[in-house]
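Example 3.2
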Amino acid sequence: MTENSATVEADMATPPPAAEATGFTMPEIVIPDFVIEWFVYSLKWMAPLFVLYLLYQLGKFVFEFIQTQYVCGDPNQWVVIIREGEQHDAGIGLNCYKTPWDSVAIFPSRNVKVEVKTEQVTVEMQGIGVSTMLEWTINKNHPLKAYKNLDLASGNFNKANEILRSMTSAIVRNQIANSTIDHIIKNRQELREAILSEMNEVVSGWGVHLCTVEVTDVKILSSGLFKDMQTKFREENIKKATLEKMVVENAIFFEQLDRGLDTKKRDLQMSKVQQEAEHE
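Structure, written as tokens:
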């Protein structure tokens, strides 16, 4: 009994083999030598390939960064490169590279037309309305001044137009206030030259170039005064026409008189010749 019990206990303490427990035999995995050799060989090239990949990514980053520094303007746009607050380069449709420390200003380069209407009384205390038109553009030598002074960063010329409109109106008011109605009506060219001269003295420092200034219309605001002036003008024209008519009629009368005298002289000469012929 003692030997049999010891044998049973020993058998129970020993775990059964896995194959015997499941009935499945684990196959032995054999890796070929050439696979091991290829893997070892690949490990030798892994570091250089990784370095090449890093260099590729670095080159790609540098290329894309350089491309972001390329500035390309349209044919109808000013492009101004600003470096340390000063104009470094500028041009219409400019294409170039900038440094990361440069800033770029881009704004339209077209001509801008501004219409101005002004009302003011003359020295006779009579109201006059003057309509003017000015055309301006960016001074090609100082585009940065225009960009700073006229708020062109917004991409429009609204503020610039309002400034020029106010300035033109002030000049026209001053000219009207120191002139007569007749002088303003008859001397538009003088008013135009005064506007152009006074504005050029100021706007040249703003980076603005005035292309032209025109006085398009002059109106008398008082309908009664305008009617009286028209009446006076018509009366003067009637007088002038009457005088011219009288001059023409007098010229015709004296011309006919001269012709009549010539005819009478010829008739007298002919009758004298006939009388002398009869006496002979």
